[in-house]
């Protein structure tokens, strides 16, 4: 007999046997025989019943997930010498690992030729992906030396207990007390990051500021939101004795977009969430496309399919999420009330939210940029508003803001924002001022009433 990828000899029972069992389960299965020398010489085992009991206990206590269903321990004889034979089938819940080492290279082994070797991090990830019930946040963290200084402070501020029982309830630990990837995301040792960059102008060029946020995902959320708000300017307009202030981006929308990127990101790959700020927009992009059989319209309807449900539950517990599925509909409604649209861009492996600067067109107009330049902007919803307004004007000659409120079924402030854009773009012209204002177009026939 010769050792191979599916056959291993041991002279006697040792604690190292469990590594061979793990390696067989993670590869193609195999057979381990106790009582045979490395060269195939049969030596035999003293007290074979005791040794087989030791092996059975080891299988039950030292290896995770449960490997007993794919192994068989028996006592056989060769040349009248007793042997303990352990047959291991290929596992279906890979990766199998040593309970004390966890799902790390020190705990996961595979067969390489006739030896058992530690699995690489990439090999472990690939085994995880092969498992039917794979969910990144539920699997064990490679790093079990985690601390939660920042996270526990956030829970304390909210008046929520944060101890071992709560960690188990939130699925930050498994039944054996090992930390899951959810715990790693919330820990001070989280290795995923958010990258932030500010560019002057409207194109990607030389950035004026660049930062990388690390630590607990909760800390990254706060740091990124603070950075975004530093570039969220307030614009003031004075009309007569009245002054009105407006932010470039509604704070609630910035917050929802950022939380959406964090909760729905695919953390199985170490790809940073990217935030880019331009003069006319904010782009927030995260790794991970839409779930199968869904489109962006699915989320616009308010349906919730979080990729990281346990992380979403933590955010809900901390009142960072008001209700599942409400974020994107609220964001789009806020922008539509301002006469603008949010742009959602998707790919098989990525998702981006593009938030327009609500004050950018006004600033362009104030700086002397002509309306025909703004007209080149593609805005399907603005085109729809223009079409319906023109149809009313052709029927009536001119219309009032109040008539558009009824026709469009939106608020007074929303109509005012849409009208400003249609005038800036050259679709409509205003006649009169204040309450007497009416709106028309330039190409009406001379005999129109």
What does this structure look like?
It is a single chain. The protein has 449 residues and is α+β, with helices and mostly antiparallel strands. It folds into 4 domains: 7-134, 2-Layer Sandwich (Methyltransferase, Cobalt-precorrin-4 Transmethylase, Domain 2), CATH 3.30.950.30; 135-189, no CATH class; 194-360, Heat Shock Protein 90, CATH 3.30.565; 371-440, Winged helix-like DNA-binding domain superfamily/Winged helix DNA-binding domain (Arc Repressor Mutant, subunit A). Helices cover 35% and strands 20% of the residues. It is built from 16 helices and 18 strands. The chain has a 6-stranded mixed beta sheet, with helices on one face. Strands 1-2-5-4 form a 4-stranded mixed beta sheet. The chain has a two-stranded antiparallel sheet with strand order 3-6. A hairpin with a 3-residue loop joins β13 and β14 (281-287). α7 (217-230) packs antiparallel against α8.
